[in-house]
Specification:
Layout: H1 20-28, H2 62-78, H3 89-106, H4 110-113, H5 117-145, E1 148-156, E2 162-172, E3 175-185, H6 193-206, H7 211-217, E4 218-222, H8 226-231, E5 236-239, H9 241-254, H10 269-286
Parallel strand pairs: 1-4, 4-5
Antiparallel strand pairs: 1-2, 2-3
Helix pairs in contact: 2-5
Length: 291
């Protein structure tokens, strides 16, 4: 896999088949665009600053403040932060360097830009109403079409807290739509099939999708984890193709003898040539040394 920022080639790691190591590389990647014009110090000594031709203006347009409030709400929801995080000094110190540049021209401070807790809470209430309206459309589409799908997965954060997500997929007016139904912290108990099934059913019932509807009209798509397979043994379940391909690639790259890559049937000349190309490709991938 190739990094689009620094063009580094990242080797497939058998011990790390997820995306964590890719995210770690992304955070370490220092490649930056060098297309921005940087005037030399000598050429700017006798030039007037652009801001000197404008009068300071500390009033921010309502449309821009609304946009910042939306971004603040996304920050809280995506990072699972408390509402008071928007008023913390750490976040203000992060935003301050960027706003200070504009503050020299328009006299805007961080306190003026960032919304308060109460403002974000009102925005959150509005977002909840929108989500409930979308959910009503989902249930109507399910009733009209009869069938729908759900994908679910689990993961842990750096503090070893476990989370579970459910995404619903449905058809409306002959088009496929997807909606994040819920992201919820998993109870402090073992991640057995029985516990996962109980959690999934409870979360769905909270949004008005009953157990009877899940068993008759829903098709679940999950990875090949034994706990999820056991949890959904009494439901309609399909394996995730992406996870299956990742498993095939992982086991293929673990082969020390590439001659074991064979077809389950008698080969002809065309198939033999294709197998040789596959073995060459696998060998090239296994020999990648650059990280």
């Amino acid at each position: 896999m190739k990094c689009v920022s620094c063009n580094s080639l990242i080797k497939h790691d058998l011990a790390r088949s997820g995306t964590t190591h890719l995210q770690q590389h992304s955070s370490r990647c220092k490649a930056k665009s060098k297309t921005a014009y940087q005037p030399s110090s000598s050429s700017s000594l006798h030039q007037h600053k652009l801001g000197s031709f404008f009068q300071p203006n500390s009033k921010i347009p309502a449309q821009l403040k609304e946009k910042v409030c939306d971004a603040a709400l996304d920050f809280i929801v995506h990072d699972i932060r408390p509402l008071h995080a928007i008023e913390e000094k750490g976040l203000q110190s992060l935003v301050s360097p960027r706003t200070d540049i504009g503050a020299k021209c328009v006299n805007v401070t961080v306190d003026t830009i960032l919304p308060s807790r109460s403002t974000v809470k009102r925005k959150l209430d509005d977002k909840c109403k929108l989500v409930k309206a979308n959910l009503a459309e989902v249930k109507k589409s399910i009733a009209d079409y009869g069938l729908f799908g759900m994908t679910s997965d689990m993961w842990s954060d750096i503090k070893n807290r476990h989370y579970i997500s459910i995404i619903v997929h449905f058809v409306k007016e002959a088009q496929m739509f997807s909606l994040v139904l819920t992201v919820h912290q998993f109870p402090e108990q073992s991640k057995t099939g029985e516990n996962i099934r109980e959690c999934l059913v409870n979360l769905c019932s909270k949004v008005g999708i009953s157990l009877d509807v899940l068993m008759k009209n829903c098709f679940f798509v999950t990875d090949q984890g034994s706990n999820f397979k056991n949890a959904l043994s009494n439901f309609h379940r399909l394996p995730c193709v992406c996870h299956m391909l990742a498993t095939v690639i992982r086991h293929t790259l673990q082969l020390s003898d590439l001659s074991k890559i064979i077809l389950p049937m008698k080969e002809n000349d065309v198939q033999t040539e294709q197998l040789d190309k596959i073995r060459e490709t696998v060998s090239a991938i296994k020999n990648v040394k650059h990280f």
